[in-house]
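Anyone up for a design puzzle?
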């Protein structure tokens, strides 16, 4: 049996191989035990404290610590083996690089969790919307810087000439930049949007044939959710530098444009009655603001066109308000037996149409708003 452990395989005895494997296995077991200890024991104590800081730190450091224990165990186990002199530096460099990357992982995880817990609520409660757009970019930028530094330090410790690598990256980056003009333009467009703030997250905008609410503003692209279809559209930021942007949210409200066609045979007093009633409906609706435009729009070959343009107050239900106004106008016209003109004839109600058309007198009641401003153009 003793002779068996003395046998050599690939320059190491069976005893050496078994020792190295035992140490690596023990490292895996210790890592698992440490992870269990953090999850089942340490978290019980941290959960009893008033602050969440210790909970966040424990939650974010346990995995990197377990990785470090396993890597250290693997390195210690390999040290019991006879490794060729030309291979040993590469193993050492690989272990060093993994440890450095593990430390970077620990820093990124912890800082990101602290930002999510403490900074994000502060930004959400602030009055300014600039920080809402900058914070996601800052978080990604911080993570990128940490990883780049970790890779550079790791390569340097691994024996690579970092200066030569960076020089090569610089020359290659110039060539890449020439071929990536669109990407650079998108980034510049994103910076322009963040500085000038033609819109902010949550605003409804119209640009390039799209109409929707801004979900995110990134360095390369902006994502919006379309107003009607609820589609998610990604718009390259370079579009915002050379295309007009309509910020609907900054307007008085969302426009409602209703048009009613009356027959050309209807008497002017009936037309005025319909206009006045439309003004009263708009003036009394709680979801509409005071600005409205109600008038005779035009005459054409099949009727007299009345137009009602009003604006739903931001935050109020648009579609329901639009339906309410249309139904109230329709109800009034049904009650007065006022017909609607179409290209194929008249749509009228079963009551006596002539009574509505030939009514000589109209009892018109204007609201105070109508007295001040008749709303006609």
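Challenge accepted. My sequence:
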């Amino acid at each position: 049996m003793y002779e068996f452990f003395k046998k050599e395989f690939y320059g190491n005895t069976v005893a050496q191989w078994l020792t190295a494997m035992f140490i690596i296995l023990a490292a895996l077991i210790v890592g698992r035990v440490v992870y269990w200890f953090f999850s089942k024991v340490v978290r019980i104590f941290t959960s009893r404290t008033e602050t969440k800081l210790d909970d966040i730190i424990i939650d974010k450091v346990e995995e990197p610590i377990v990785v470090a224990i396993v890597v250290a165990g693997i390195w210690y186990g390999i040290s019991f083996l006879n490794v060729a002199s030309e291979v040993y530096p590469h193993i050492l460099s690989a272990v060093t690089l993994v440890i450095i990357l593990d430390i970077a992982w620990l820093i990124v995880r912890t800082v990101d969790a602290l930002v999510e817990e403490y900074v994000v609520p502060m930004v959400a409660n602030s009055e300014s919307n600039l920080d809402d757009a900058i914070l996601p970019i800052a978080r990604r930028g911080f993570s990128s810087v940490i990883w780049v530094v970790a890779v550079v330090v790791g390569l340097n410790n691994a024996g690579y000439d970092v200066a030569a690598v960076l020089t090569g990256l610089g020359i290659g980056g110039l060539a890449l930049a020439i071929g990536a003009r669109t990407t650079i333009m998108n980034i510049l467009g994103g910076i322009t949007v963040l500085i000038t703030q033609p819109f902010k997250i949550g605003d409804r905008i119209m640009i390039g044939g799209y109409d929707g609410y801004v979900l995110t503003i990134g360095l390369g692209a902006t994502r919006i959710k379309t107003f009607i279809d609820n589609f998610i559209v990604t718009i390259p930021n370079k579009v915002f530098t050379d295309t007009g942007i309509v910020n609907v949210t900054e307007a008085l409200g969302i426009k409602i444009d209703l048009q009613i066609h009356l027959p050309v045979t209807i008497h002017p007093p009936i037309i005025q009655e319909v206009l006045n009633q439309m003004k009263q409906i708009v003036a009394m609706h709680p979801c509409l603001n005071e600005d409205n435009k109600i008038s005779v729009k035009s005459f054409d070959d099949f009727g007299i066109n009345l137009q009602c343009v009003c604006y739903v107050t931001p935050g109020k239900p648009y579609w329901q308000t639009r339906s309410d106004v249309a139904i109230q106008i329709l109800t009034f016209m049904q009650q007065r037996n006022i017909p609607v003109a179409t290209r194929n004839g008249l749509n009228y109600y079963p009551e006596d149409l002539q009574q509505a058309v030939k009514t000589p007198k109209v009892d018109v009641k204007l609201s105070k708003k109508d007295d001040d401003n008749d709303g006609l153009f």
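A detail worth pointing out: The radius of gyration is 37 Å.
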